[in-house]
Amino acid sequence: MERTFNALGPIYREKVGTLSSVNILLPADISEMFKSEGLHPRRMTLEPWATHREIRNHRKGVFLKNGEEWRSDRLQLNKEVMMSAAVRRFLPLLDDVAKDFCRLLEDRVEREGRGAEEAKRSLTIDPSPDLFRFALEASCHVLYGERIGLFSSSPSLESQKFIWAVERMLTTTPPLLYLPPRLLLRVGAPLWTEHATAWDHIFSHAEARIQRAYQRLSSSQGSGTVAAGGLYGGVLGQLIEKGKLSLDLIKANITELMAGGVDTTAVPLQFGLFELGRNPEVQDRVRQQVKRSWAQAGGDPQKALQGAPLLKGTIKEILRLYPVGITVQRYPVHDIVLQNYHIPAGTMVQACLYPMGRSSQVFEEPLNFDPGRWSVSREEGQRGEVMGFRSLAFGFGARQCVGRRIAENEMQLLLMHFLCL
Question: Where is the signal peptide, in residue numbers (predicted)?
Answer without folding.
Answer: none
